Amino acid sequence: MGIAERKEREKEMRRKSILEAAGVVFFEKGLRAATLDEIAEKAEVSKGTIYLYFSSKEDLYCSLMTKGLLMLLETFRQSNPDESDPTGAIRLFGEAYLQFSRQHSHLFKMLAAVENPAIADHVSPEVFAALEQSSDDVLSYVATFVQRGIDTGIFRRDISAHEAVVLFWVSLSGLLNLRERSYTMRKDNVLKADSIIGSVDFDCLYGKCQEYLLNSLAPVDGGSGSERGLPSDSKAAGKQTRAARRR
């Protein structure tokens, strides 16, 4: 290994150690309370060394987000989706996303803060562009399977693959974020046991939500009025209700 190659390797290792230290500090204190001094101490480098790699605390935070999204993309790929089974592939992605939120909870929680203007206003264009690209890569990967389902008639032809993926992303992420919030509220003893959030089994609801979304992609085989496009179990519930009324 040459001198230049060794220096480049050492530089990358130092950058990685700073990111790892930042992940710990951000997880413990959050973006607002965390300081570069604390991150430098955790990484065992000087504060000046951090500025050689990242121009601000927000740059460091968003770089962690990019790392998290790349990890999520690799998680999706390693779930071994079958290209001939778009429905099964999307179920695998949903399960992989749930596992990711559990195994990398600190990264998952950070992802919810990316849209905060207070962060975006202090991030360099290069870092923010990398973050946007990594997010687009994740969504585009899933969208290819949705589009394959549309092209083969497995999914409805009157939907947009991009819109469907965003709907899945927002719905499942929102549910997982609410689950994390409910855990925190339970731990702090501020959640009433008889509240709606307190009564929900979020892991079970996550699976139901995924199936509702998948059912909404299924081709519509007739049906009338309000039943068009509803999940199959919702249609069944509607029929049972009408039958009960007739009785």
Notes on the structure:
The protein is mainly alpha-helical and 247 residues long. The chain folds into two domains: 1-53, Homeodomain-like (Arc Repressor Mutant, subunit A); 57-246, Tetracycline Repressor, domain 2 (Orthogonal Bundle). 75% of the residues lie in helices and 0% in strands. It contains twelve helices and no strands. It has helices at residues 3-33, 36-43, 47-53, 57-78, 86-103, 105-111, 117-120, 125-151, 161-187, 196-199, 202-217, 232-246. Helix 1 crosses helix 6 (105-111). It is globular, with a radius of gyration of 22 Å.
Topology of this structure?
Elements (H helix, E strand, L loop, with lengths): L2 H31 L2 H8 L3 H7 L3 H22 L7 H18 L1 H7 L5 H4 L4 H27 L9 H27 L8 H4 L2 H16 L14 H15 L1
Helix pairs in contact: 1-2, 1-4, 1-6, 4-6, 4-8, 5-6, 5-8, 5-11, 8-9, 9-11
**What count of structural domains?**
2
Compressed to H and E, one letter per element, the order equals: HHHHHHHHHHHH
Helicity level: over 70%
CATH level-3 fold name of the largest domain: Tetracycline Repressor, domain 2
Q: Output mean pLDDT.
A: 84
Question: What Rg is obtained from the alpha carbons, in whole angstroms?
Answer: 22 Å
